[in-house]
Amino acid sequence: MELVVRGSNDYGHYLADGSGKNMRSLKLTTGQKITSASSLVISFLAIATVSALAHSGRTNASGCHNNSKTGSYHCHNSGTPTAPSSPSSPRRSTPTSSPSRTTAPRVSEPYPKSAKLIQSESACINAESVNVRRLPSLDSSVVQTLDKNQCIFALTQEFSVTSNSYRWRKVRLSDGREGYTVTQFLNLL
């Protein structure tokens, strides 16, 4: 039942539900109101201070930013930050005979020439999970599955593929691999 202040006198405030029935008396003094309001303000300030200490605040409108320590790009608005792009274990300082990092083969360019390459734009995933595919086709192999709010870089303007009704963008993952994803699942930043 929602109670609404309907009046007051020397003995306290009179409350009633929305219909005006069920009158009840609640005895509050002015000091108690101020104390309640003060508690609310103090709680708000404490939470805001802790939030400010947890992050520098330099995020974009989607809550995403570059991490200056790891170099990764991630978002905070889901409550679960994305995994950093660099490994968490320390790197060995001794050289190895085989390359320590393998690069994925370059994706062929099946997008039309009208879908011009652009200076990469940051984009975050707006669906629960999205597949980045080797080619702009639902039949193409999956390069990586991304979770909601993970961020990538869009490399082309969106374009349509004649064989399906989706609009696609070529994208680059944080580890440098490239692929394609459906545009409707991206929020450009």
Automatic annotation (TrEMBL):
Residues 72-113 are annotated as: Disordered. Residues 80-106 have a biased composition (Low complexity). Gene3D superfamilies: SH3 Domains (2.30.30.40). InterPro entries: SH3-like_bac-type, YHYH_dom_bact. Residues 120-189 form the SH3b domain. It comes from the Bacteria. SMART domains: SH3b. This is SH3b domain-containing protein. It comes from Acaryochloris thomasi RCC1774.
